[in-house]
Design goal:
Helices cover 42% and strands 20% of the residues. The longest helix is centred in the N-terminal third of the chain and has 12 residues. The protein has four helices and four strands. The radius of gyration is 12 Å and the shape is globular. A four-stranded mixed β-sheet has the order 2-1-3-4, with helices on both faces. By secondary structure, the chain is of the alpha+beta class.
Length: 85
């Protein structure tokens, strides 16, 4: 069974685009929540993401893994594939 991947984004955010690009390269399906101008959605994201209000915020199997730098760090450490399995 594939991991459930969720990502909160802002449409013009370069870090969001970069994080989604990594997931697409790995052929990982993900649920995207756009928080563009939606304060309620951003509050939900912050609540789930330990208060973080920056985008992207990424969750794998309902576990908060962080933002763009965090997902690329997991990839470079060889740990991302384990989480996505």
């Amino acid at each position: 069974m594939a991991a459930k991947v969720e990502i909160y984004t802002w449409s013009t955010c370069p870090f969001c685009i970069r994080a989604k690009s990594l997931l697409k390269r790995k052929e990982i399906d993900f649920i995207e929540y756009s928080v563009d101008g939606d304060e309620e959605a951003r509050e939900k994201m912050a609540h789930r993401g330990d208060g973080r209000r920056s985008v992207p915020q990424i969750f794998i199997n309902d576990v908060h893994i962080g933002g763009c730098d965090d997902i690329y760090a997991l990839e470079s450490q060889g740990k991302l594939d384990e989480l996505l399995a």
